[in-house]
Amino acid sequence: MAEPFRVAAICTIYYAHSHADAIVTKFLKGMSIDEGFYPPEVEVVSLYIDHVLDTDIGTAMAAECGVPIYPSIRRALHAGGDSLGVDAVLLIGEHGDYPWNERGRHMYPRRYFFEQIAGIFAASGRSVPVFNDKHFAYSWDDARWMWDRAAELDIPLMAGSCLPLAWRRPWLEHDKGVVIDEAVAVG
User: Fold this and answer.
1) 175 burial level (CB within 10 Å; 0-12, 13-18, 19+)
2) What are the CA-CA distances from residue 92 to residues 11, 21, 50, 68, 177 (Å)?
3) What average pLDDT score do residues 165-175 get?
4) 29 band by pLDDT with thresholds 50, 70 and 90
5) Cα separations (Å) of 105 from 68, 96, 98, 158?
6) Strand 88-92 with 130-133, pairing
7) pLDDT at residue 79 greater than cutoff 80
8) What CATH number is given to the structural domain containing 21?
9) Which residue from 11, 53, 82, 164 has the highest number of Cβ atoms inside 10 Å of its Cβ?
């Protein structure tokens, strides 16, 4: 069997029920769904947490799973070595003590984190896939910069949400090809 993908998790904050918990914890411990338990098929080999507060669970989770926490994004992507040492990156820039702009948008440092990630890729001459939780950035200019930089370095860049995987109660399954005009999710 091939070695599992080595993943770096880069997070703004990691507390119970946060986006980091919803995503990274599944990569560390697996997940249970109706069909049974699915163990992780990748190995989280490094973790960076920008804000560690009293409510943090990431440090204990990392210790329990034997994952080192690094003081910088660069060191997390090097994963204990001197160069890029991971096969993929989870970028989770949601929650934390960051300012709001004049438009009422929370200024999460997704672009800032991605700039560092891309810089490490450029220096190494190699790019690996990056999954960005949620949208790319709070501003069009930052999102466009991230997209253009990813294209420049041939970075497979994905963004999305785990919301489509939420439970449906009552259960609802549409026939293939059905057009949905409106939808709402309550969490």
Assistant:
1) exposed
2) 5, 10, 10, 17, 32
3) 71
4) very high
5) 32, 13, 10, 21
6) parallel
7) yes
8) 3.40.50.720
9) 11
Q: Which amino acid is at 140?
A: W
What secondary structure letter does DSSP report for 143?
H
Q: Six-digit token pair at 111?
A: 């672009």
CB half-sphere exposure, 121, CA atoms < 13 A: 23
Query: Quick check: helix, strand or coil at residue 139?
Result: coil
Dist. CA 76–CA 81, nearest whole Å: 9
Structural domain span for residue 157: 5-162
User: Looking at the domain assignment, is residue 186 inside a domain?
Assistant: no
CA dihedral 181, 19, 135, 141 (to 10 degrees): 150
Q: What is the DSSP string of 79-121?
A: TTSSS---SEEEEE--SSS--B-TTS-B---HHHHHHHHHHHH
pLDDT range class, residue 168, cuts 50, 70, 90: low
Identify the CA nearest to 49 among candidates 24, 69, 27, 75.
69
- 173 falls within a domain: no
